[in-house]
Amino acid sequence: MELLTLLAVLLIALGAGLALQWPALRRQPLPGYSQRAPFLGGGTPDSHAWNRYHIRYYPMTLLLIAFEMEMMFMYPWAVVFVEKGLMAVMEMGMFLAILSVGIVYAWREGVFKWQ
Amino acid sequence: MAVSWLGRLAARAPVPVYPLLGIGGERALYPLALAGRVTRVDSPRHASVLLVAGHVPVHHHEALKRVHDQLPRPFATLWFRSQPLPGLENARRVDDPATLTDELVALHRELQTGQRGSSPRLLPDEPPNPWEGLGDDGHGGEGMMGGTPYGRPMAMNMQDDIRDGLTLDSLTFRLGPFYPLLPPGLAAEITLQGDVIQSWTNQSPAYPRALDAVFQTARERPVAIAELELARARHHLRHLYRALRLAGLEGLGLKALRLARELTPASHLDGLRRQLTRAGFFRLAALDGGALDAETARRLGGPAARAAGIDTDRRSDDAHYRRLGFRPALGRGGDTRARWHQKLAEIEQSLALAGRAVDEGDLTTVGPGGLETPCGPWRERPAQDAGGCLEALLPGMEWDSALATIASLDLAEGSASPPPGEAHAEEPQ
Amino acid sequence: MMAWAAMVLTFLALAVGGYAVAVADRLIAGACGWPHQGNAWLAPLARGAWLYRQDANVTEAPDRPAWRLAPALYLALAALGLALVPWSPTLVVADLATGVVLWGSLEALATVAIFLHGWSANAPLALIGGYRYVALGLSYILVSMFVLIGVVLPAESLKFSQVVAAQEELWNVVRQPLGLPLFLIVGLGLTFWGPLNLADSTDLAGGTASEVSGPPRLVWEIARVAMLVAFSGIAATAFLGGWLGPWLPGPLWLALKMLAVLLALAWLGRVLPRLAPERCVTLMWVVLLPLSFVDLIWAGLEAL
User: Fold this and answer.
1) Which of B160, B193, B196, B400 has the fewest other C-beta atoms within 10 Å?
2) Neighbours of B (≥3 Cβ pairs closer than 8 A)?
3) DSSP letter at C58?
């Protein structure tokens, strides 16, 4: 039931977002090429913009994966935390300490810099 | 019915204006920035009115047409001290800065209430390369990456990245001469990999920017030091506005502009400086990098040189300046951050000098001789393409720090005489 | 029945809240030195009308379905986010047992929507904006999760209604003093607002939105303020005790707290400079993430 209402919210909002754009897109003809050229302050590009883009933060994305996996364990841990008491604090504290060392190491290696 | 109701509502919106600045066009920019009822936008897609301010030289008419055509309909053009291009006979022209805002608001209202049609397109409706019906699939492409699919080739890898040596695709495009975050007139061919600049080749230098008339007078006869120093401070404050807007601190930039407008020898910079520091301008914004080597700094002269610790200031030669206790303020490092510390220090110095000169009975300069303009020693001819230093400076920098570096340099200045074209633009047509 | 009433309330809050953000932003701008742009109450509506009447721009070869979908998707994510917020113990659209997890996934999807917006225009400046935003999106998401898990600990549940109920004695903003400031920074990132506006920034002439005009841009701007509203709803629920409060009815208390968060965000957006992307990533990982660890440990010890 709750998921159905959420689905309704999703569809209404998505529909509203598309509907606002719809009539405007239908009534207007395709603009000419002189309008469609990408804006570069009067300049022109040599090629399409889509390319094998050089993302400068790629080492950081790898580090993120390690943390994202860790999040999976954290949700159930959080729910049973009070029940398990100090033991849970210790466990997660150790886990976070190890990860923190990882961050410090990554920082030293320049992972967060634009490569 | 519904449309006209919407139109009337739309007519009351703050007018989004894309200012396209020609020679001397910044004269329109500063009052416009402080005027209510209009908003300055950075992309023609976001504008309702294209404001062409100042004379645009003929070799930039093609670029002007390109920007003009990039405004989505309905839009209008307003020409401030500039001759409308052929084909835009319906466009409106103004020469009086005082009526600029009213004209912009009126144009927007006329557009929205249907009293005025949209400006026509100036360029032919042709794809950059023919593609329809060509190639393997009729979309202009050939093989995996070849041909011109939908009118343009695909990006290719040309060279190893200059920072980490990876060979990914590079984007090459020409930016300017009307990119709002570059000095007006400056155009360059840029190659990027990711957001790091691989190469930067200037295509046209920034338009000369007219200095305050008092600098012209100071070359011919003694002028009041207070007046000269206030003009200098005003110049730097306007420069600060342009950089703060780029840094996302437009509110403080407008404060700087307001201070410039109401400058007196009793003005002081403390409030603005404190707010800048508190907002974290020097710590958070992209001010790293952009360090000039000693030779380039010396060639550029002025605050850029003094920020690099080079003791060069013609005011030291003036006996009356020395009497006021003038000693050039010097910075260290010569990078973008140092240049802003330097500029703020020089504004404060100028205000202090102006105050002291008034106290000394409105002291004047000694006389014609070496003159220090806000952007360096007076030169008979503008320095040959001050922007040339960018070609060595920018490669390897990220997009935002590259633009912040350009914003911290006075690339446009170098001429105290009215720039060419200004006289032409002033003529009533 | 309650769910439907809550749904109406949610969409009403999105509309009214979005309008309130637009007005508040203008008023704050006026106080921070911008020239007066006429009537601040009318200006957002007039601007919306202008955008609706302006032609939608098309680039040479855009990914058109994705380009039109991105603003609508971002709006839908905002609506879903606000749907998780309980207005009172019973008045809530969906009080999922995994509410906090769903909010986390919405934050992750927001990065996708914003990237899609920049990528699909097939224009250089918009593309840079999109990729730049991903760096930010991947950096703030961990901070957000650790901070939210901090509020889950005392509640012993991932339900937002339980999170509120656990604040009966003391709000989390006092109990976990690091939580709300960190979460506000996440909010600035999520809505690419002010100092964290790396996607639609000035140096890129509008970034992902630089090629967008007309109705699609209208939806994009609506979605952005809607996301601010949704975020403020979650922040008020997680840290400011949600519906809790004396005298006034619960929903009104929540609305007031959301307004306070919105004002704080709008003000921060106007007074701070835009961060350099590289510095932003370092700041998130090296300063804010360890701080969020501290917040989590603090919350844990406090909850026992």
Assistant:
1) B160
2) A, C
3) -
